[in-house]
Amino acid sequence: MYKYLFGPVPSRRLGISLGIDMVPKKVCSLNCVYCEVGVTTKHTTERMEYVRYDKVTSELDHYFANSPDPDYFTFSGSGEPTLNSRIGDVIRFVKSRKPHIPVAVLTNGTLLYDEEVQRELMDADLLLPSLDAATKGVFEKLNLPAPGLDFEKYIGGLKSFSKKFRGKIWLEIFILPGYNDTADELQKLKETLLDIRYDSVQINTLDRPGNIIDLRAATHAELKRITDAWNLKNVEIIAAAPARKKIPSYRKDAESAILETIARRPCTLDDLEKMLGLQAVEINKYLDVLEAEEKIVSVAQERGLFYQLKR
Ligand code: SF4
Asked: Ligand 1 center to residue 80 CA distance, Å?
């Protein structure tokens, strides 16, 4: 069982993706209300070697020797990966061992203004930064930045780095009704997009319940209205979650383990992580499918959101 690698997971955007987790749960510069990983416990912009380089690379060496190649190596997981000060070294390590496999970095983009972070990300092939807000007020309400994180600096860094980075950029915009879907915010988001060099913009909405229980996902019709109004090139609404099941690496054994555990007693995401030794991001993908198939339901209780079998 690896501690810093997860998967390969069936990712709707990256095919079969081996996740590399560079920070413990949960170190992040944001505390987004919709976060699937849980509440940020270390809310910071301070870069450190949160997970040691030698520990990650020794797991990678073991993986390379024993497992088939994934479609992507993806830096993501329990928080913001660019907060790890050795991310550039790990990217170079992966590229030196597996030069033919692309490296993707899922980032909230808040540190892209930092020239050191920019240098470290240069060897990646694909960057997936988030952009949920075009104004400071919405950023603070939706993404809850760490103290000292300046909104203008973040947006400025995203714009300038997009023009320096040589790889592909897939921006992700998370639409959350009641937070960033006013006409004014959507117009400003469009104006911001026009100043970013991107290959695609992927519009997403709530898959799983976030930190706040009464959030709701945008409907497909709402998302479609937004993309129609923007009328920009290469903007897509990400496919619905149940399509994941069609990906060959969808692991029936993981699905069964989750179902069997929930059948014994209702569990929170945290419970499932501890009991099954799987990462929250991975478990969430199966919960998505199971909920869409109406095999399970989520119920809000005092200790959090519990998953139980649908009777
Ligand atoms: S969604 Fe991403 S950026 Fe936002 S709090 Fe969670 S890990 Fe951090």
From this structure: 7
